[in-house]
Structures are given as structure tokens and as C-alpha cells.
């Protein structure tokens, strides 16, 4: 049975035009995606260590990283060959390119996340996606140890597997995204309660009820398959083929990290 509007009236941040617009748009996206069966490629892991000098040559060369981040990551030292027009455009970028030499200001915590950003870009920034023709996976993996060097976190050895480092996110922002632009509440319910759907059309409700793979109960850690926050990040960003969990292409990586932080509160601080 669909809940009445009173079921969400005590959540003022989800009411009004913003919520209606967010849920309406998300409903359209969801209805067009059931069931999504697209590819779910995963970034390859490095099978041998790379010297930082290889990454440095790519950073300052064909990777064009230095165009925005500066030669060797020094933001005040842009490549000398840049025209005055390009320099002006870079100075006006909003948000400004991050200082890769200040580890305390960077939000990415693992090389897998860095690989994803370099390959697929950073929504709503000047960090655009790079094709295989521009930089191969091998090239990107070569960049990673060099980035560790310039931010001062290079290790003496290359770990075979990275620890499951929690992602940094704002749970309050994630809560709003969950119920609005993210569209998560349509399938997973208000505040993760599967039996408390927001107002949706009868047709969409019937289609959700008929899903062969029902939405996961986000409040039950034992029923969830993701092992860590990085898994959750990729599940939200890339989706799950064969389910209604389509790729969230409208969400920035910061938005997804906020969602991951909110999901932790639904699990009661679980894994």
C-alpha cells in the first residue's frame, strides 16, 4: 500500500517544489531504465609497480595534467607554452583545480578512486573523461605513484591490495540527495524503509513491485553485498546491470560520497 503524504510530512527538507522536481525527474529516469543491462567494466589493477618518473613524464606531457595542476603539481607554475588566453581561462575555473601537493585538502583516499577520476572525469569540473586513445590504463596506472610522490605519501613498497578506507562525505547532504536528485528513495524507500515509498505513479509502483531483483534493504547490513565504502561508491556510480540500479550520471563524485556517508547512518554504523 502506498503511503500518504503524511508519511513524509515530518521531513521538511523533502517537501515542496524541490523534492517534487527531484523525485519527478528521478522517476522519469528510473522508468526509462528498468531493467538496466549495460556493461559494468571495472578498472584493472596494476600487476607490476611503476616508477614515478614514468608518471612524471605523462603528467607533464601527453596527459596534459600540468595544464591545470601546474608543472610537477605546482599550481603557480603553469607550462610556459600556454597562451595568455588559456592561462586566463584556467584562473577563472570554478571550482579551481585542487592542489595535488596538499594531501590534507584532497578528498580521494585510494588509488582506485584516483584511477576512476582520471579515466571517467569529474562531473561539473574541468576534469573531463579521457579516452583509451588519449591515455591507456597503463598510462593512468603509471601516474598513480607519481601523484603519491608529489603529495608526499609515496610508500616504499606497492601494496597488493588497498585497505578499505572510508570515503569522506557529508551525511546531511547525502540524506537530501537520497530523497531528491539521487532518486534512491523511489526504490529503497523514505529513509531506507522499503515499505515507505514517496508519492509515485501507480504504473511505476507496479513496475517496481514486479522487479525480478527487488531493491536491497539498506537498513539490514547482513543483506547487503558491498563490502566497503569503495564498493558502494562504484555501485552508485556505475549501477548494477540486470537491476533497476542504473548509473548515476547526474551525480558528482562528491555527491556520491555524501550518499555513501548517509547510507552508513541507515546501517546504524555497520560495515
From TrEMBL:
The UniProt record lists the keyword Metal-binding: yes
Keywords: Electron transport, Heme, Iron, Metal-binding, Transport
Keyword Electron transport: yes
InterPro entries assigned: Cyt_c-like_dom, Cyt_c-like_dom_sf, Cytochrome_c_Oxidase_Subunit
Recorded superkingdom: Bacteria
Domain annotation Cytochrome c: ranges: 50-151, 169-267
PROSITE patterns, per database record: CYTC, PROKAR_LIPOPROTEIN
PANTHER family xref list: CBB3-TYPE CYTOCHROME C OXIDASE SUBUNIT FIXP (PTHR33751), CYTOCHROME C4 (PTHR33751:SF9)
Protein name stated in the entry: Cytochrome c domain-containing protein
Organism name: Nitrospira defluvii
Organism ancestry: Bacteria, Pseudomonadati, Nitrospirota, Nitrospiria, Nitrospirales
